[in-house]
Amino acid sequence: MQILLNNYMIVGAIFLFGIGFMILLLHNNLIKKIIGMNIMDTSIFLLFVNLGYIKGKEAPIIIDGVMHASGYVNPIPTGLMLTGIVVAVSVTAFMLALTIKLYEKYGTIELDEIQNLRGD
């Protein structure tokens, strides 16, 4: 139990990922699936930013002279997460555009109804 309390950010990220994954699996509505995918993305960002943080270290911004490299937090995980956020927003916009096109063609955003209309 103490391990869970000490790593509450990691436990929260895993919990959020599970919520997003269950939304993705259990709902037929495309908008809800997109929301589930965004929750999963956010949980991964939370996990990596939490793992990249080192208590007692400073951000790699030089203010009062250069310290030794061991005094700074590694900036690579943060940079990767910024890139991941840009990719996640782009994928979300693409999925929403596809959802709009599906709605224009079939008049619904429910996957089971679209499959019935297609005859699959």
From TrEMBL:
Subcellular localization: Membrane
The keyword Transmembrane is annotated on this UniProt entry: yes
Membrane topology: Multi-pass membrane protein
Domain of life per record: Bacteria
Keywords on record: Membrane, Transmembrane, Transmembrane helix
Protein family: Belongs to the CPA3 antiporters (TC 2.A.63) subunit C family.
InterPro entries reported in the protein's UniProt record: CPA3_antiporter_subunitC, NUOK/Mnh_C1-like
Signal peptide span: none
TM stretches of this protein: 6-26, 38-56, 76-98
Protein name: Cation:proton antiporter subunit C
Pfam families (alphabetical): Oxidored_q2 (PF00420)
Keyword set includes Transcription regulation: no
